[in-house]
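By convention, the token line describes the chain's fold. To illustrate:
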Amino acid sequence: MKSIPCLRRSASTLALVTTALALVSCSTITPPPAKMHTFEARNHQFLIDGQPTVIASGEMHFGRVQPEDWDLRIKQAKAMGLNTVCFYLFWNQVETQEGKFTFTGMTDVRRVLKLCQDNGMWAILRPGPYCCAEIEYGGIPSWTLKYPEVKIRTNDPKYVEWSRKYLEQVYRQVGDLQVTKGGPLLMVQVENEYGIIANGNIDYMKSLTQVFKDVGFDVPLFTCDPTTPIWGNAALRVPGLMYGRNGLKTDQAFQQSAAGIGDFPVFVPEVYTAWFSGWGEAIATRNSTIPQITSWTNYLLDHNYSFNLYVFFGGTNYGFSNGCNQYLPVQTSYDYSAPIDEAGRTTEKYRVLRDLLGTRLKATLPPVPPDPAVIELPAIAFTEKEPLLTTLPTKPTQVSDKPISMENLGQDYGFVLYRKKFPAGLKGTLELKKAMDYTVVMVNGRTVAKAFVGYGPASSKVALNESGPVTLDLLVYNLGRISVPVSAETQARASKGLIGGAFLDGTELTGWENYSLPMADGARFKASDAPQTGPTLYRATFNVAKLGGTFLDLRNWSFGVVWVNGHNLGRFWDHGGVRSLFVPSQWLKQGENEIVVLELHDAPKVPEITGGTKIIEEKAVAFAVKLDVANP
């Protein structure tokens, strides 16, 4: 082990390092038997049943991995040399409608913790209420936007009460699975990176920490922050709450963080195995190389710091679940260059980390489980199509003077179509105000413009000169609510739809038909001979003899969504570095399968799709405007 320079460190810092050095011989965690345990975080060390312990954790997320694969992922984590699995649980996937909580399928948190225990692994839970994680609205439910007077991530009594109700439900699922009650759950995270928006006010964090205690959590509670004022000012800490420093990888970072860490052990909740990728961007390479992650891991092990690999498996932003960095939507693939790839296969990074952890922790590791099957699909030819407009309900969801937001239509994701008729024709400059996020402008079913902040402000102004009668349709597509930074100051930006209305030569247009189109499982489909002049649905069937995951090749297509057997795979876009969509094996069936594609732009040159065994990467097409900024 490398010697650690201790010059110019405070007495408390020296004690922390000295303790860490003494822990090297006991850094391997004993699998958790089904009995009562004690778990403490004090005196600069973690203690399980009084024994000094180092946590070596890896993270995966509810909603991004199929529940049928949880057991395999946990086994893969153990075989890589990890002893703990960390999970983000997203509030907006649990409480999709206000007051209705679901802990089944992809959100069955109780089952996944039991699987950890069955596999001899400890667990960490990060339930938010705000998570970030590049997930839609950082995990906050979209229904909260119906209450703009309630300020999120603040001490607003209503927001704290919403959080309490959610956390009470989480506790009912996992309370008896805490380590203090014989379960595998070691720690629970309170909020996430609040220091970024705190501005020195920690009243909310004090209230939320008390909520976690009040609902019943008695394991150590922690939070995490990157480089924020908390680390240089111990007065900004919530008493009794452990602070983890995201991204800590150097002695300098440790010295900056020592005051914030205090008497607690060093814990790095996010050791990045790479980075996320936004639309219009190439696949991210930040932190992604094997030398980078092995150097970082070795540094942490040299100092005996506990850590969590973010992420050891990334998976997929299925459906419309991706978040947005400022105005930059995150791509559907969340492969993240993780040790386990999007299809669930171990990678070279996995194998190198397995060798490193096994050696450094002096652990005898179980065999690596076999990789899941990944299959090829021959070309699927699309012979049926139908314009999206012909699938509209016979009546609008609501008729209103001004356009209604997605949330006030009772809708979370997908599309809203705003329709207005002009019997005498339509002439002038149409201007869209705060169309969130992407708008296809159609006249009598024909696409005449596409408006998006990434195309620049000119795209929101459309010159029209159409003789009557004219039906104007504005199809507004939610590309993902802001996931960072999320605060009371940014919550208005999270509302979706034609928020600011539409104007013709400066006069606001009124009298709209509002059609709610969540399209979670596709749309009603009736084949049509009509040519594609606007957004169009394509349908085909294909046969599968042997089940396995597959990567659909979308390079023939431009911009839209794909459903397989009614399951929403997510968004494809020719602006992205990834041009494939992953189909998990669980969403396929032996024999005949159905695939539906919504193409929002031009008709595909070749209306077909193949399935392959690898992620398809292409050179990304950048947008005209930089989107990961506050004011693009």
About this structure: The chain has three domains: 11-360, 377-386+523-612, 395-517. The CA atoms of residues 279 and 296 lie 28 Å apart. The two ends are 48 Å apart (CA to CA).
